[in-house]
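haha ok so turns out i had the wrong file open the whole time. this is the CORRECT one, sorry everyone. sequence first:
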Amino acid sequence: MSYNIKELPNGIRIIHQEITHTRLIHCGFILDIGSRDETKEQEGIAHFWEHMAFKGTKKRKAFHILNRLDAVGGELNAYTTKEKICFYSSILKQHFNKAAELLCDITFNSIFPEKQIDRERQVILEEMSMYRDSPEDAIQDDFDAQIFTNHALGRNILGREETVNKFSQQDFFDFISSRLDTSKVVFSVVGNISFAKVLKQVEPFLAEIPTKKRLYIRSGFSSYQPIDKTVEKDITQSLCAIGKPTISLYHQDRFKLYLLNNILGGPSMTSRLNLALRERHGYVYSVESTYQAYTDTGFIGIFYGTEEKTAGKAKKLALKEIDKLRTKKLGSMQLHMAKEQAIGQMAMAEENYAALMLIFGKNLLDRGKITELDTIFTIIKETTAEQLQDLANEQLAAQDFSYLTYLPK
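then structure:
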């Protein structure tokens, strides 16, 4: 994996990988700002900012922003997570300069028109209602709040109605001013363009962005207590979540935990949870286990839906499969197949160049470097059955889990 990195005087870094067998270029700004960086009174403002970036800049109105790339078949998008805001685009290579300049404009020159704030406020309130009407989404948000009690990581990225209804133009300017750090901004480019051409086209307008340093420091999370909670909902089947905090993205065992989680309940139809809960007993339509690593902590969680009468049995089965990973060492063939499966999934993910562009940006922000895929493959290949069993005992002890169950009223 060959890539190029350059840091500008204002601290903004450019990362690039050239892919010659495509007509497209994928590019975007990744900012080290997310919903966990909000105060309680600011809940939802990072996500609101993501929406408002498309609503007007110092030199463009909303229509001109939307039409700039749409007119040449390009895509313009954005998203917000707990720790990142991303503005990104996919475009034919001959229109790269348009995309890069527009992304720079909406990222750093938004003016947050008051009329547009009022309009977009309604859109976000509708988005919040949509999520509330989707219990599969709601249980994940509620479980975050349960795991990360009284911490910003547990807050809903969309915010609360009370806060969203109060945001004014000045609130956006104040939030950006206090949270933006140009040394924590990466412009990532993957596609059919040389690094020299990228620098020639983007350096002129990136260099104009003034240096900005933030004094704000994220508050860590360290106060977890297991909670078992049941809530009645107007739904037709039970929804269940099992999980706990776990290791961060800086931990030396994070790729081993990725492998362990993949064995337990990854996307494969042969994951242990899918074979036990769906294939052998028919208790669920789908079940997933997810590992989310943050800069100072992490989260591992299992989510599934089942009939109310089988909720107890499904929970026992899930915990039984977890316990097997702790008490029974993987056989050599099982371990080999699990490794091959994880490596294959990662290799296929690398073929998604738009996703790769975002991964580059996030890795550079979080780790200051790009972890080569071959390095990750080596870690996975060298992982032993004993190491996975030890990790399962450290991270998957039943007494440490929290539980959240939605039951039909």
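The chain has two domains: 4-206, 228-408.
again sry for the mixup
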